[in-house]
Amino acid sequence: MPAPALSLKGRVLRLLTQREHSKAELARKLRALETDDGALARVLDDFEAKGLISEQRVANSVVNTKGKKLGGLRIKFELQAKGLSDDLVRETVSHLKDTEMARAQSVWAKKFGEAPADTKGQAKQMRFLAARGFDGGVVRAVVPRVASGAGDGWPSSHGNDQDQHGYLDADNDADNEHSQGFFDGSDD
User: 135: which DSSP letter?
Assistant: First the structure.
């Protein structure tokens, strides 16, 4: 004989025993099973009043399970997807800012552990951290820089003619004398 179908309360309890859920998540998951208008809202309000549903516990759970591997931007997205209030999301993410650099360094070290050999490797490492929600400034600080001219497609002789940003240095007279006539309109 098949087991009787669970009531809304039974389904909410079953979901809550698996992990913390926000009120919005439970409503989204169980909306299709609601037979009476407002019955699900009453059940969820009752569970919230009894302390069985807590947005703060949901936020803490996300941070505890994913905080070591993800950056603040990704955690913020995860919390918003769970339907948590904007104030709680903002507060939770602000507490993560202090450890963002250390967490990014830990994630980078576990995945790569050594400086990239060329700019392609550097871009790969930066994309990896960015995809995990780490801030751009943190990503740039964590991923070691590749020496200028290394693996960027330029002949190695141009490496000495580059400024601190990797651009060709316009003050280098050896390269400039051939192009001077073009820019000033004179014909050599």
Answer: -
